[in-house]
Amino acid sequence: MIKNRIKWIDISKGIGIILVLMGHISKIKIINNVIYAFHMPLFFMISGYLYKNKKEFVKNKVKKVLIPYFIFSIFSFLYWLIIERHIRSQSISPLDAFSNIFIAKGGSDNYIFNVVLWFLPCLFITETIFWILEKNFSTKKIGIIVFLSSIIGFIYPKIVDFRLPFCIDIFFTSIVFYYIGYIFKNYIELKTKEKIRYKENIIILIGVCITIYLAIIENGTDMTNLRFTYYTIFYIAAIIGTYTIYLLSNRLCEFKSSGIIEWIGKNSLYIMCIHEPIKRIVIVLYSKIIKQNGDLIRQSFLQVIIITFILTIISVIVSYLINKLKYRLKNI
Asked: How many CA atoms lie within 13 A of 267 on its CB side?
């Protein structure tokens, strides 16, 4: 177990991963637009906030990011190869799907067996390149490089129809959020709850409203598929949405009942990697039980909430079992 964890960060990750689950279940445009506006930027910003230039940085990231990526990718691929590809139409061959585990091109079509896994190679590249930059440049110069990168990330998919290996085309954007998280840690002063309590709820409400408004204007951000409509609005919505989650998480720290969200946040990596195949099974079974078309279910807000709750519970149980197995293997 990792020591000295920061509670609000775990709660933020818990909220974030639940939104990831909901976003992958829902086919309600407004809900998806709002969630996609900031849910992946949130995780990159948190990673940047937690950045520490330790010895053997890259080796540590290989252990914590790349190895889990390959393990979950191979298991997800085998499940898809043996079962799922026979019961749903596919646009990719088994060979291409398997090879992409190692090539790691982003995009829903390239990760047909588990779409969310793009995040891990992208995070690895983002953290490694930021580590190189942080070792060789001042914070100001890194800021200039990151700004130029953001422009490349926005323009690239509009002029080039080719996905780069190891999610480098997504990296141009992800490093912006990683850098923002890094700056947030270095420069913001965390006020005491007594100082911000009287205005915190209002700020959260305003943040939610602004994020929803900007997400509607942006009309469908999607980092893995490189879909960005308006450059400025995309970044503003992502930053405001993430900051709102930060404020909300600090507020929830006061409540003992936030413990389950905190636990989910601590295990967000596992939940992120396992939920997609489980989601498809849950939707099929749920649709058979209530005798309703799966696509129609995913367009009902109430049904989306119910399935998100079920998927969260199952993912928590599976994550708990993974932790148990990991503990036992360590002690063999």
From this structure: 23
